[in-house]
Amino acid sequence: MSSDDDIFSRLSPRSRTLAGLVLAMSNLMVVLDLTIANVSVPHIAGNLGISPDQGTWIITSYAVAEAICVPLTGWLAQRFGVVRMFTMAMIGFGLFSVLCGLSSTLGMLVACRIGQGICGGPIMPMSQTLLMRIFPPEMRGRAMGMWAMTTLMGPALGPIVGGYISDNWSWHWIFFINLPIAVLCIFAAQALLKPVETETANVPIDKMGLFLLVFWIGCLQIMLDIGRDHDWFADPIIVALALLAVIGFVAFVIWELTEEHPVVDLRVFRHVGFSSGLFTMALCFGAYFASIVVIPQWLQMSMGYTATLAGIVTAMTAMAALFTAPIAGYMISRVDVRLMISGAVAWIGIMSLVRAHWTSGVDFGTMIIPQFVQGFALPFFFIPLTTLTLGSVLPSETASAAGLQNFVRTMATAIATSLVLTSWGDSQRVSRNDMADVLQPEQTQSLLSSLGFSSEQARQTISNLVEQEAIVMAVDHVFFMSAMILFAAAVIVWIAPKPRGNVDTSAAH
Length: 509
Description:
Blueprint: H1 3-9, H2 13-35, H3 41-48, H4 52-55, H5 57-69, H6 73-80, H7 82-102, H8 106-120, H9 123-134, H10 137-168, H11 173-176, H12 178-192, H13 207-227, H14 236-258, H15 272-301, H16 307-331, H17 337-355, H18 364-375, H19 378-390, H20 398-438, H21 441-450, H22 455-492
Helix pairs in contact: 2-9, 2-10, 2-12, 5-8, 5-13, 5-20, 6-7, 7-8, 7-9, 7-12, 10-16, 13-14, 13-20, 15-16, 15-19, 15-20, 15-22, 16-18, 16-19, 17-18, 17-19, 17-22, 20-22, 21-22
């Protein structure tokens, strides 16, 4: 009996199925937490007495911490065993979720979200590793399909669940609900997965590489998060952070290319297919995530929507993706993946152009349609792009390439959040000033006065109207810029050579 057969025989079919469900649930929880806070930002900002701009640190801090921790997953699993690390990560995630819910200041909430991200980062890849470990080859396709469905369901359920909880309970509960799921996963892992624990080895860790990684990403993200409040490069602090980020990044690249056991294996970038595919992924995820951040905030702050309704509009894209994911999986071995990616990205870009014509009078149904139609293209971009990038590297480099792919994807969402909100704010100011230059408020004021408004009420009404229109024009600007980026990404993907067949995508996460 081979060692693999021995592993599979350690679990009964029932235990294997239960373990698969628990691993899928753990992945769903972590993916859900990336989007569940998006629609709750206005609630959290109002409760903590901070601006919505500052409230978005709750999104970026989690994403950055998760991205930094993902490259460490392989080392942690080898050093402590994959089941033990999975259990410890779940304990940490549950604990920091409770602390997030108990937070009374922005500083405490951001610190606890960083803790949540550090613990959540390894859960996704380790849940996938364990699925591959407990299911025999002939059952892995179905197991990975179930896992992939949770990755798609997370962004769909996150805004709806977050909106409903914020409207009907309180924002604290978007974090508290993680606790029972985490406890269930911890006990189930101990009861079911102990027999498939991996062997441990005292492998070295690239401490300097890890330090440089945290340093340059930390400087970059702080610069992006506080830049708009400090007038960007007019402030010496922002200039200093930008210089430190550049120096740290250059030092990180040089160190990692010369280190024997790098924390991030940058050598895989020598493959043109991997590099162009990863660049395409970063652009697409950044542009796609722009709408996930902007739409719920605009609908709640300017359009008078509840968090629940804003969440439903946001989630429609991921809902549609659930229908077409099986078709994309079926077509992947029959169609050139570059054609699938290019077509899907262009499709998403066209839907961004449609949304760039929204007005302050747009209704719920009009917003739902492009959101839903856009979603059909998501699996035709995400699934083939994974095949393209992993199919461009050597089989021995697949794990490193998959880890780097997840790192770049998560960082793209964090950086895009900061850049989009800056662009949105700047565009609002420009639109407001442009309207103020051409307005003729005297006529409107006299009309309002004849309707019984006082001069102060009339001025305030005009100001509110200008503000509302400036915000929606800024939203349209964000969608237009997203569309241009997506169209560029649809072309860039053709730089990649056609990938080889039979790609092992099991290491992707």
